[in-house]
């Protein structure tokens, strides 16, 4: 065997050294690239692996009434989110949470569907945890990777059902809503206003979310907040003040009969400021906070009484005899009616027109009456003749010009427009037949193709009480409704005749249809309406106005009772509403005569006496 040559050994050593130097150089360059050239990139990747951003929802703005009372505010609450992760891991976590949060299989499926739509976002499971649920989850944190419980503001509606249709409710933003331009910048799981004032003024109340970072271990468990990372604090929503008188709103909800459906609207004349708006049956908007239970939602949506329907703005009904004021005004403005002269045909319980006999509600008849008395007793025969004097085409033209086929313009996210034909061809388009002149007899008494909302009728009387002009109804302070001002355009004689007629309606023992609703301390006038209903008993209407004796009206009240049968029934609730508001405004007791005597004995100033 030949000995190993020294030169060969040297070459091999030099080769090994070269390989070693090359390897160390490669490693050195890699370290230099990692630590220096791409330091920021790898730091970000490292942080992304162990840090997770969590949204911080802002507190929504508080909603106040005109006197500073709270209609909606926020209280501390607890929310639970599951951080992004593989689909099977997220589902397994939800299944572990199911017995603690009462998650049904259908609810888990719905949450997983939402997770698939936004896989990179934390999945909000509940925003309304109880303290017991929070405790149970914290005890099991080791077995619930990716679960995060945080304290966040929780919406609260102290008066619940009394303000439900007015204020609306909040809920989680839907995929469809996320696609709308108005919700640009919103993310899945965020809470938004879904109805009422909450939705209409979402851009004011919502605020801007913040963000915080939490640190994760290798098993996906949260080990704490990442202190060096600056937390971006949420920007709270702005507060909102309403024209609503919350005490009056509570009163209206209290006096409304539980067994009946309908609505009450109270408004300031001229300004259009809405003092109260109540719809019955109602619901509790607090049920929607943190996500409404599917069974509760099913009951609300399938209830034949439709508790989610705001009857004040989205319910339309034949206005009945309340519309006789519009009929009379159109005729006077056209110069075909002298309010001080009776019409040729006396009321004998009805009148013949063509081959049909049109009855009056009073079978005994009213005889010869002038306009103010025709309004007082609500004589159908008188207004049949007024309708014929106007003629169908002119009646439809004038009614459309006055806006009875449109909305009132109230600042709510939805309002149903009134139904009123724009001309005879409307009947052909809608129902496929042409009307005869006899159609105007039904329209003249507020029947036929004419449906209006309680809000619209309140607006009509608010204009009537303010020389024929009124702003669009406004619930929130800051918008005066000037862009939708309603000018009836009726002259002084027309307005005076109508006001005299509705004054006679409420005179006690005066023979008017609402004499039993007379108020002791206030000028109270209005018009009853009983509208025929193809689905059951007649609907009852009353719209009235009240104020200090000898002064201007300060409140208008519109009442609609579904299946209420007689307008004088609705008049009682309208009178109670107006009386309560004015008594409070002028410092009068609102309960009993005994309270009034206590004020006298105590020597308290009776500011209300100045209104007499």
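Q: What amino acid sequence fits the structure above?
A:
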């Amino acid at each position: 065997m030949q000995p190993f040559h020294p030169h060969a050994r040297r070459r091999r050593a030099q080769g090994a050294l070269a390989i070693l130097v090359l390897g160390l150089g490669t490693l050195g360059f890699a370290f230099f690239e990692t630590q220096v050239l791409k330091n920021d990139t790898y730091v970000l990747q490292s942080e992304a692996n162990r840090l997770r951003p969590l949204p911080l929802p802002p507190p929504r703005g508080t909603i106040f009434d005109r006197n500073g009372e709270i209609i909606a505010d926020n209280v501390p609450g607890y929310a639970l989110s599951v951080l992004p992760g593989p689909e099977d891991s997220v589902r397994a976590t939800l299944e572990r949470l199911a017995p603690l949060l009462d998650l049904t299989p259908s609810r888990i499926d719905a949450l997983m569907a939402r997770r698939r739509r936004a896989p990179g976002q934390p999945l909000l499971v509940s925003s309304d945890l109880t303290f017991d649920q929070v405790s149970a989850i914290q005890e099991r944190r080791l077995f619930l990777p990716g679960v995060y419980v945080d304290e966040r503001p929780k919406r609260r509606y102290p008066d619940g059902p009394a303000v439900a249709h007015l204020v609306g409710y909040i809920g989680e933003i839907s995929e469809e809503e996320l696609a709308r331009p108005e919700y640009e910048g919103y993310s899945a799981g965020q809470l938004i206003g879904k109805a009422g004032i909450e939705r209409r003024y979402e851009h004011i109340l919502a605020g801007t979310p913040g963000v915080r970072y939490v640190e994760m271990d290798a098993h996906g468990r949260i080990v704490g907040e990442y202190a060096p990372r600056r937390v971006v604090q949420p920007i709270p929503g702005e507060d909102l003040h309403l024209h609503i008188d919350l005490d009056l709103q509570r009163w209206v909800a209290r006096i409304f009969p539980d067994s009946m459906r309908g609505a009450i609207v109270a408004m300031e004349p001229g300004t259009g400021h809405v003092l109260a708006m109540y719809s019955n049956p109602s619901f509790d908007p607090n049920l929607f906070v943190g996500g409404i239970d599917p069974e509760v939602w099913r009951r609300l949506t399938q209830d034949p009484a439709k508790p989610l329907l705001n009857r004040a703005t989205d319910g339309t009904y034949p206005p009945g005899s309340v519309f006789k004021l519009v009929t009379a005004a159109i005729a006077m403005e056209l110069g075909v009616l002298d309010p001080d002269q009776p019409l040729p045909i006396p009321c004998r319980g009805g009148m013949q027109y063509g081959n049909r006999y049109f009855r009056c509600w009073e079978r005994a008849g009213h005889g010869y009456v002038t306009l103010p008395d025709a309004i007082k007793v609500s004589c159908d025969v008188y207004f049949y003749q007024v309708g014929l004097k106007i003629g169908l085409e002119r009646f439809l033209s004038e009614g459309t010009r006055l806006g009875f086929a449109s909305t009132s313009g109230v600042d709510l996210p939805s309002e149903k427009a009134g139904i009123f034909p724009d001309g005879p061809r409307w009947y052909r388009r809608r129902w496929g037949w042409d009307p005869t002149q006899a159609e105007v007899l039904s329209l003249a008494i507020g029947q036929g193709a004419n449906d209006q909302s309680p809000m619209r009728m309140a607006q009509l009387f608010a204009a009537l009480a303010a020389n024929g002009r009124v702003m669009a109804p406004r619930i929130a302070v800051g918008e005066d409704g000037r862009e939708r001002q309603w000018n009836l355009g009726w002259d002084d004689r027309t307005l005076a005749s109508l006001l005299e007629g509705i004054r006679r309606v409420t005179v006690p023992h005066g023979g008017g249809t609402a004499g039993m609703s007379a108020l002791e301390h206030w000028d109270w006038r209005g018009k009853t309406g009983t509208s025929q209903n193809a689905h059951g008993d007649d609907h009852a209407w009353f719209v009235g106005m009240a104020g200090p004796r000898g002064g201007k009206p300060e409140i208008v009240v519109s009442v609609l009772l579904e299946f209420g049968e007689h307008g004088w029934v609705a008049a009682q609730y309208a009178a109670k509403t107006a009386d309560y508001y004015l008594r409070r405004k002028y410092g009068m007791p609102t309960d009993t005569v005994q309270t009034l005597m206590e004020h006298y004995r105590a020597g308290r100033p009776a500011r209300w006496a100045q209104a007499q």
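Q: And what stands out in the fold?
A: The chain has 21 helices and 19 strands.
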